[in-house]
């Protein structure tokens, strides 16, 4: 069922962006439309957990899946009446070897990184998984360079507007997903808020992303794509570094709020112009390829962010809870070492048996260990964001360029139907 959810999402997300691109041909109109698209994406990041947290107060956990049913109903009805058809008339047949190689290679890479956080980087299974990932992904890029129907046309990466923005999006999702992964647990499992309480405290991030994503098109129009994305990354890097220095188990919410809202402003500022750069670098007939690449980089960045930063957090957590090894029996310590949630459950059971003192020690040690690991992961994320800012400023052009011959044939005024000449200037 989880795989089918991913399959459906993988079909929907690229199609939405390619439809937006094919509907708005004028560069300024397209930039603003993509900014709104990114703003809605940012809003969804906050609304989903908020609604899910509300349902978890009164219903079983599986109630969160029913949220999608009315959304799908609205999408089907609205799509039928308002969406125009858009397709590449010369689309190649599916690249099945490329699909298989990319899935297995990325699975092996993410699995190896996650296992490294538990077993260590020198464990045989970790080395095997990462080595296998290297071989498969190398084969994937070799195949994509030779295949006439490649799912990822490598020639697109000759365009710095495409390459620079793709790397920027991937690194942004690396930081965003990795940080959100730890912050939601921090509020619930360390500071004791309910799922709804944690979602409420994270919701300002979504609002900030939405607002700055909407404004980003106007900012990019004034100072260029390069500076807009680069400054956005610098803001994110600075706020993550701030959070890495203040994150403790008893950190006041106001302090966390200040850092996370500033971070979200930078994310919203960088996300939309980078997405627009990817879509503007490909001809409209290849909008599906551009949007699929955009979504793939998002998913890869998010998966690696959770894996890498989660591994950093978990490694720090394991190192700091070892002080409890001699105070607990092996089974209880195993639960404590497995996760912050396991530590809380062990503390709850010990407290129920009258061991309030040791239960308090477990909570304090585990909470401090998690906060320390989260601080370490924030520091790593801030360095990655700083590197992303420097990369963006060095590679990404200020003006979006499409280097493909098809772009000249598709240079029509916004609003003109495909295949019909644009109106004369001034009409």
Please, could you describe this protein's structure?
- There is one protein chain.
- With 427 residues, the chain is an all-alpha fold.
- It is 77% helix and 0% strand.
- The chain is built from 14 helices and no strands.
- Helix 2 crosses helix 9.
- The longest helix has 40 residues, at 356-395.
- The radius of gyration is 23 Å and the shape is globular.
Summarize the structure.
This protein is mainly α. The protein is built from 14 helices and no strands.
Would you spell out the secondary-structure blueprint of this structure?
Blueprint: H1 2-23, H2 27-58, H3 68-82, H4 96-119, H5 124-146, H6 160-190, H7 195-223, H8 225-246, H9 253-280, H10 287-321, H11 330-338, H12 340-352, H13 356-395, H14 406-409
Helix pairs in contact: 1-2, 1-10, 2-7, 2-9, 4-5, 4-10, 6-7, 6-9, 6-10, 6-13, 7-8, 7-9, 8-9, 8-13, 10-13, 11-12, 12-13
